[in-house]
Write a structure and sequence with these properties.
Length: 297
């Protein structure tokens, strides 16, 4: 009987499940609206039922959840998950493990994207930073050969650094976070105000030379370069839905980042890799993380 691992990628919109065996064969991909379980009175119980349906098909050595929020340093407790309030402030891994009688672990979803991207490199680097720009700004820190979570689980929240002269309220509760001006959310709001007739996917194709869009790229480059100058990683991995939009000015972004990197070593040494995430990447990364976590179990 083969051992399998189950990766569950929980996003604000969709929840994806996928199984992997020891020879990294994938099976059983499922995608359901997150609201289908998160809006129920017993949301955690509904999530357990959803996971149990996947576990019925094959014996599973462990389940790894990816969540778009802040987890405790030991990654047992969800501390802040504004988009899925049903799981907010609960020991989700332990509760699910109890309900399912299977080991359950969890991590930030962006770390699973990053793990997948890291494993595509010729060798695992010592130091790498992932920046995934979607609805918000996903940031993953791989330092000294492992993910860095911070003292309280709050590391890699670069979207919430304060941006000068910005009075926008952020979903995190603070005022003036960089993410309020530099995210897919901002782009959607800008498009609704300035060009409601343009399909959002065509934003860069049609309005890429608008001064507001050029400023958006400039802000993004400054935010990323700041982190590069603090951490000096070997690799910068850039990805996310915004960068995958048609005609996104990737070359301009890279030029602007490089222009702010401290000479000589950070500027000359940084390797930039573009992530080519698909619908399956988050839960594939979660499967690989489960294998690493539960291999000895
Ligand atoms: Zn914030």
């Amino acid at each position: 009987m083969t051992t399998t691992w189950l990766g569950v990628d929980i996003g604000g919109t969709s929840t994806r499940l996928l199984q992997m065996d020891a020879s990294q064969q994938w099976s059983g991909f499922r995608k359901v609206p997150t609201a289908s379980w998160a809006s129920q009175a017993d949301a955690l119980g509904a999530l357990a039922t959803l996971i149990a349906e996947s576990l019925e098909t094959q014996p599973t050595a462990g389940v790894m959840l990816g969540l778009p929020g802040i987890l405790s340093r030991d990654r047992q407790h969800v501390l802040s998950l504004p988009f899925i309030q049903a799981l907010d402030d609960r020991p989700v891994a332990a509760e699910l493990s109890e309900m399912l009688s299977v080991p359950v672990a969890m991590d930030k979803d962006v770390n699973h994207l990053m793990l997948w991207d890291l494993l595509q490199l010729p060798a695992l680097p010592d130091n790498a930073v992932g920046l995934y720009l979607g609805t918000g700004m996903g940031n993953s820190l791989w330092l000294n050969g492992k993910f860095y979570h911070g003292q309280h689980g709050g590391a890699g929240e670069i979207g919430h650094i304060p941006w000068a002269d910005n009075q926008q309220p952020c979903p995190c509760g603070n005022i003036g976070c960089a993410e309020t001006l530099t995210s897919g959310n901002w782009l959607s709001r800008w498009a609704a105000q300035h060009c409601p007739e343009t399909n959002l996917s065509q934003l860069f194709s049609v309005h890429g030379d608008h001064p507001d869009i050029l400023s958006f790229i400039d802000r993004l480059a400054k935010i990323i370069a700041s982190e590069m100058n603090i951490l000096d990683p070997e690799y910068l991995i850039l990805g996310g839905g915004v960068l995958a939009m048609p005609d996104f000015p990737l070359a301009t972004l890279q030029q602007k980042i490089t222009g702010h990197l401290r000479p000589p070593v950070t500027r000359s040494g940084l390797k930039v890799m573009i992530s080519h995430a698909t619908d399956h990447t988050g839960c594939r990364g979660a499967c690989l993380a489960a294998q690493r976590q539960f291999r000895s179990a």
